[in-house]
Amino acid sequence: MGTGKDLVSVLGRSWWTFLLRGLVAIAFGILAWVCPEISLRILVRLFGAYVLADGAFGVCAAALGRKEHAAGGALLLWGLLGVGVGILTFFTPGVTSLALLFYIAVWAVSTGVLEIMTALRLRKEIRGEFLLLLCGLLSVALGVALMAQPATGALALLWLIGSFVAAVGILLVILSFEVRAFRRARSQSPGARP
Questions:
Q1: If we measure between CA atoms, which residue out of 49, 38, 150 comes closest to residue 90?
Q2: Angle (CA) 158 164 168, round 5°
Q3: What pLDDT is recorded for position 140?
Q4: Are 160 and 143 in contact (CB under 8 A)?
Q5: What b/e readout covers 17-53, taking b as 16+ CB neighbours within 10 angstroms?
Q6: Mean pLDDT in residue range 79-99
Q7: What is the pLDDT of residue 11?
Q8: Share of the chain residues as helix, strand and coil, in percent rounded to the nearest 5
């Protein structure tokens, strides 16, 4: 199994994927708040696009960390899960919005657990790992909320998902700059490998 240092190396090279994930998430959150008249089906499709993009960024980060197999494995799993759920939301048009919400809930809980595990592995390696831990906790909370009350009104659900995604986006943008700063500091220290 890879060390926390391996994971830091992988994340350091792919800090920009956190930035892109965060910016996409913030844009989705703003759209959900500014356009509350969109239907639940459109909301779920838009969220599917976000999850697909998020998963693609995760796969990209894992590909950049392929030399650290164990460290990149969690990122690859995280990315593939997002890509899978994103594809399901687009290529299962006959599925009800409730079933699509269940996909999103499962994705949110799974992603949250992976983010929490990653943050715990990084706690001794980098500063700011609590941001990833907070993202994970928010993801799990969203998934549990969606599973507990799937029949919530569309507007309340839209605001819940929009708020969650925007909050995670802000945390990811901050985390991307923390990881980037850590990578720079680490590469400038004597004997360090970038």
A1: 49
A2: 145
A3: 92
A4: no
A5: bbbbbbebbbebbebbeeeeeeebeebbbbbbebbbb
A6: 75
A7: 66
A8: 80, 0, 20
Q: Which residue has the higher pLDDT, 38 or 69?
A: 38
CA 24 to chain centre: 10
Residues counted in the chain = 194
In which residue are the tokens 């956190």 written?
18
Mean pLDDT (the chain) is 75
The CB-side HSE value for 107 (13 A sphere, CA atoms) comes to 25
Closest by CA to 110, choosing from 136, 145, 148, 92, is: 136
- In angstroms, the CA 19 to CA 28 distance is 14
Architecture of domain 4-181: Alpha Horseshoe (1.25)
pTM exceeding 0.85: no
Measured CA to CA, the distance from residue 20 to residue 124 in angstroms comes to 25
- In the chain, the percentage of residues whose pLDDT exceeds 90 is 1
Q: Which region holds residue 79: left if phi is over 0, alpha if psi is between -120 and 50, else beta? A: alpha
Alpha-carbon distance of 183 to 68, in angstroms, equals: 16
The type of residue at 26 is I
Identity of the amino acid at 5: K
**1 has pLDDT over 50:** no
Directed axis angle between helix 15-34 and helix 4-13, to 10°?
70
pLDDT band per the 50, 70, 90 thresholds, residue 40? low
